[in-house]
Amino acid sequence: MTITRMTIPGRWVEGAGLVLGPVLLLAGVLVRLGADDFFPGQLAAYAADPGRMALSYSLYAAGAVLLWPAVTALGRVIAVTHPALAGWGVTLAVLGLFGRVFHAGVSHLAFQLVDALGPAAAERVVAGTYGAFHVFKAVNVCIMGGWVVLAVGAFRAGALGAGPAGVVRCVALALAAGLPLGVLKGSSDPVALAGLAGLVVALVPMGVAVLRTGPAPRWWALVLTFALVPAAFLVGMAG
Question: Which residues of the chain have pLDDT under 70?
Answer without folding.
Answer: 1-6
